[in-house]
């Protein structure tokens, strides 16, 4: 969600706020040398470069600049692997969080500490996607092979990992365009007491809401739970918690039309 907002120029950078006549000055809060555009604060600022110098070597060698982070991200997509792009996205969010902390007079996190925190958050996110879920006999878990959606449409994969012992779930959502490029991801951890079916149903609801928030109206949702998929496709009455969550997801998806 953060990366999508950044690429859509929805972040309240000082340059964006000045354009909307909210503030009079747009100089970078940290370096004071250039206007605080999305491209500057997340990539071009000397403080941001100190953070990028801690990470992926291929990223350190990138030299392009732009006031728009969308331009920078688009060129990264052409050069970096999915794993590297995930690290870049986590790092950008950390840089933006540090910027906000500076705005409110909080501690300015050291580049090394910021990079380590971004890596830790990325590990936690990947664990929510790879942790083996606890399933019941009515839930089918299979390995899926990615196939291209139509041009102008998006493939939305969701998954839910259940830790019944501790009573919480991890939800992961990944959206890709028709070329297979990731354009958005979501992770959520929540205290949750329910069945694996309930957790997967909650996952498809989050995926549907995420698509709506990103303005996506043409999408194909794909998940591992046969029970959830069958319920979405055939619309039988199911008044369990999971059934109600699936119905809520259907309502959200129908609102796209």
Automatic annotation (TrEMBL):
One of its GO terms (molecular function) is RNA-DNA hybrid ribonuclease activity. SUPFAM superfamilies: Ribonuclease H-like (SSF53098). CDD domains: RNase_H_like. Residues 1-52 form the Reverse transcriptase zinc-binding domain. InterPro entries: RNase_H-like_dom_plant (IPR044730), RNase_H-like_EbsB-rel (IPR052929), RNaseH-like_sf (IPR012337), RNaseH_domain (IPR002156), RNaseH_sf (IPR036397), RVT-Znf (IPR026960). Residues 157-256 form the RNase H type-1 domain. Pfam families: RVT_3 (PF13456), zf-RVT (PF13966). This is Reverse transcriptase zinc-binding domain-containing protein. It comes from Juglans regia. The lineage of its organism: Eukaryota, Viridiplantae, Streptophyta, Embryophyta, Tracheophyta.
């Amino acid at each position: 969600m953060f990366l999508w907002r950044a690429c859509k120029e929805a972040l309240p950078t000082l340059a964006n706020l000045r354009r909307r006549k909210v503030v009079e000055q747009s100089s970078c809060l940290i370096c004071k040398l250039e206007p605080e555009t999305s491209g500057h604060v997340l990539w071009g600022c000397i403080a941001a470069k100190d953070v990028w110098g801690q990470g992926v070597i291929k990223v350190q060698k990138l030299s392009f600049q732009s006031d728009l982070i969308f331009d920078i991200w688009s060129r990264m997509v052409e050069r970096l692997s999915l794993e590297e792009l995930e690290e870049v996205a986590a790092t950008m969010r950390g840089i933006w969080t540090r910027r906000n902390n500076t705005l409110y007079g909080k501690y300015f996190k050291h580049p090394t500490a910021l990079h380590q925190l971004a890596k830790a958050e990325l590990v936690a996110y990947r664990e929510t996607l790879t942790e083996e879920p606890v399933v019941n006999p009515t839930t089918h878990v299979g390995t899926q092979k990615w196939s291209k959606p139509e041009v102008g449409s998006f493939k939305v994969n969701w998954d839910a990992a259940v830790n019944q012992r501790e009573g919480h779930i991890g939800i992961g959502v990944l959206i890709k365009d028709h070329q297979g490029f990731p354009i958005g991801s979501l992770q959520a951890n929540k205290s949750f007491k329910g069945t694996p079916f309930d957790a997967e149903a909650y996952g498809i609801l989050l995926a549907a809401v995420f698509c709506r928030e990103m303005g996506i109206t043409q999408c194909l949702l794909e998940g591992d739970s046969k029970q959830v998929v069958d319920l979405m496709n055939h619309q039988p009455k199911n008044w369990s918690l999971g059934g109600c969550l699936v119905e809520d997801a259907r309502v959200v998806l129908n609102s796209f039309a």
